C-alpha cells in the first residue's frame, strides 16, 4: 500500500500514540478517562479525515474503531477473569495453597521455592490476579511464622506469577491480546504452546533471580501499628464428628489431626460424657463434639476442610415444627440444607449491654431461628471455657462469630441484643462448589490446550458454566470484569488498527531499522525487546502488547524474515512490567499489604528486566536462527 496520500492521518495517529503514552504515564487522569477519550478522538478524526479503500469506503469508520470491544483476545481475557474469580470464590485452589504452606518447613528459601514455583506453574494456565490474591495470605502467614516482614516476599510472589504467565497462550492477558491482533491481521493463529520453550527458559532464568537475589534487595518494611488486627483473638467453637468425617478413628495419642493442628482442644463431648485433657487416649467416633479454642482464620480454614462440622446441630428448640407433622426437622431437612446454598458471610457481633440474650445460652435463645444465622464461636476475655458452644451462658461483652446469608447478617444492625462489628464482615468462599469449579476450569484448560475448540469459545463457555452452575453469581461475575482492562484494551486496539492502516506502524518499523542500519534481525529484535520492556512499565502490559504487535509485524516484513519471533518478542517484552507498580495489576495488588513504595519496584524490577533482556538477546537469535549482522 502507498502511504504518500495519508501523511496527515499518519502523523495525527502517531501524535495520538504520544498523547496516549503521556496520559497513561502521568496518571493525571484515570486510565479509563484517557482510554475513552482516545476512542472518541479516533472516531472524530477519521470521520472528518477518512482513509478510503479501493471501493471508496472508510477503513477507519466508527464500527472498525469500536471493533476492539469485540476482539476475541479481549473476550477471552474477560471470560478468564470470570473463571478465575469463580475459582477464588469457591476456594478451589485453597487446598493446594495450604498444602504448599505446610511443606515449607522452617526455611525461608525452601518456603519461597515451594510457594513460588507452583505460583508460576498455576499462572501459566490461570489469570495471574486470582493466583496472587489466593497466595497473599499464605505468604503472609509464612512470613509471620518466620518472624520476617511480609514485604520481603510479596514482590517475589507477583514477579513469579508474571514469569509463569509468559509460558503459554492463556497465561496472561498480554499473550491473548497479541494473539487477537495477529488474528485480526490475518496471520497464522498463535497456538497454546507455540512459545512455551523460549518462555520456560526465560521464566526459569527470572525465577532464579526472584528466589535468590530479589528477597535480599527488597527493603524490610514492617506493618504500621494502625494495621494491627484481632486475628489472634481466640473463639470457643465446637466441631462435630459427622458421618464420613476424616476425623473418625483418629487417636489424639498419634498427634493432633491435621485439621485441628492450629486449634487447642479443650474438651470432647460423647453423649452425656465429657472428656477433659489430657486426651491422648481418646479415639474420635461419629457423633463426638470437639470443643476447641481457635482463631478466626483457623476456623475459616476448617469450614473448607470439614463443611458443616462447625454448625451446631439444630435442636428441638431451635427448629420449627413441620406443618404436617409433630416431628422436628433433622439434619437432612431444608433448614439445615439452607446453610449450603448461596453466599455466606462471616462476621463478629458483641452481646450488647442490657441485652435480652445475656444470661441465656444459644439453645434457650433459639438464636438460629431468631436471627437466621449460626453462631460458630464465642470469645470471652480472660476466661477459659470448657463447655459445648450451645451450653455457654452468654454475658454482656461476649463476641460472637456468626455465619449467615449477607442480608441476614446485615439485619443484625437493627438488633438491640447484639452490636455488629462492620469491619469484621468477610464473604466466605462457596466451598461446596469447589469441585464443580475445578472441573469446569480443567475442562476449559483441556479444550484450549488440545485445540478442540478455539480458546475464546472455551473461555466464554467456561465463564457461562461458572455462572449457570452457581459457582459465581451474575453480580460477582460483573464485578470481576475490570473496566480499566476493557477500555484500555479496546482503545489501544483501535489505535493499533489506525497505526496499521495509516502506515504509522510501517513508518516506526522502518525508522527503527534505519537507526540500526547494518545490524541483522538478531540485533534489531534485541533492541526492540528492551524498548517494549521499558515502555510496558509506563503504559501497562496490555497497552504495550496491542500497540507494538503491528509494529513488530512490519519490522519483520521490512527485514524479509518470519514475523513469529518478533511477535513473541512483544509477548515477552510486554510482560517485563517489573519496575513499576502500574505496569501490571498484580504489582498494584501487593502494594498495600507489602507496604511498598514506587522505588521498591524500580530497585527490584530493573535488574530482572536486564537479566531477561540479556537472556532474550542470547536465546532468540540462536533459537530462531536470526543473524546479528547483515552480511
Description of the structure:
The chain is built from 26 helices and 8 strands. It is of the alpha+beta class and 631 residues long. Strand 2 (264-270) and strand 3 (273-275) form a beta hairpin. The radius of gyration is 29 Å and the shape is elongated. The protein starts with 6 loop residues before the first helix and ends in an 8-residue tail after the last helix.
Topology:
Blueprint lengths: L6 H20 L4 H18 L13 H4 L6 H18 L4 H10 L4 H16 L4 H19 L4 H14 L8 H12 L11 H17 L1 H4 L16 E7 L23 E7 L2 E3 L13 E7 H10 L28 H4 L6 E8 L10 H4 L1 H5 L2 E6 L19 E6 L1 H5 L7 E11 L5 H17 L4 H14 L5 H7 L2 H20 L1 H12 L5 H19 L1 H19 L4 H11 L10 H10 L3 H26 L8
Antiparallel strand pairs: 1-4, 1-6, 2-3, 2-4, 5-7, 5-8, 6-7
Spell out the key features of this protein.
single chain, 631 residues, alpha+beta, eight-stranded antiparallel beta sheet, 8 strands, 53% helix
